[in-house]
Design goal:
This protein is α/β, with parallel strands linked by helices. The chain contains ten helices and 14 strands.
Amino acid sequence: MPTIVEIKDLKKSYDGGFEALKSVSLDIEEGEILALLGPNGAGKTTLISTICGLVSPTSGTITVGGHDVIQDYRAARRMIGMVPQEIHLEPFTRVGDAVAFTRGLFGMRRDDAIVDGILSDLSLLDKKDSRTFALSGGMKRRVLIAKALSHEPRVLFLDEPTAGVDVELRRDMWALVEKLRASGVTIILTTHYIEEAEAIADRIGVINNGELLLVEDKAALMARLGKKELKIHLRDPITTIPSGLEAYDLILTDDGDALVYTYDTKGERTGITALLSALQSAGAQLADISTHQSSLEDIFVGIVKDKS
């Protein structure tokens, strides 16, 4: 797929020397869903805000659809929709008017059918004539999303879009994301709900301390870094790993009730059969066996820890 957002050697420094972004380079493909993961203060929001023109970069270049975000700001910004973390709405404006007004700010002609369609997708159509101050927090979040979509952007940024919202909105949000992706919209999201990134993202980016540590296809990342654990539950607790099992790098649980063996599911041999035979020879009595596959959260925590 062609590249729609191109970032080259992007840096952002503040007075006092703090570096919020350190030589970030990234190509985002048209129609993909990219999830940016990172701890608080990692640089996720700064990166999104710089692409959207809300923060000025110290150096480096960004283009959206071939338009430089500094030199050709209006054309670049017209292609972008952004849902911020914080909820800021004019309290006395009606919902329908707020969405239509935002559409007009981007030079789009009035189209009530498009606005009604967006409101319908977000379960807001029955609130079209309500004033925003009368809405619940979840409904206000929906209005922010509707405003971001009002001018039919080709790139949508979602900065922690489901943080603190109800399950219904979260479900509606991800259904809408799938619908937008099907229409060719590129979606970049930051989230603390790692299971959501694991469920819907095509690629995963990990950022920490202003550095982009990696960007990789989700399936390839999990296949490369994901590990599987075999937990061998023992009939009787032990205090030390039996002699002769050193080659298996076993870990004894704190309570001594189980041994943990980590292996690569992609390897030619897992070593499980040999391990079980060795355990039997060592006189260990097995009570049960269970397995655990590394999740994206396990992988993310490991990457950040290794790079810190």
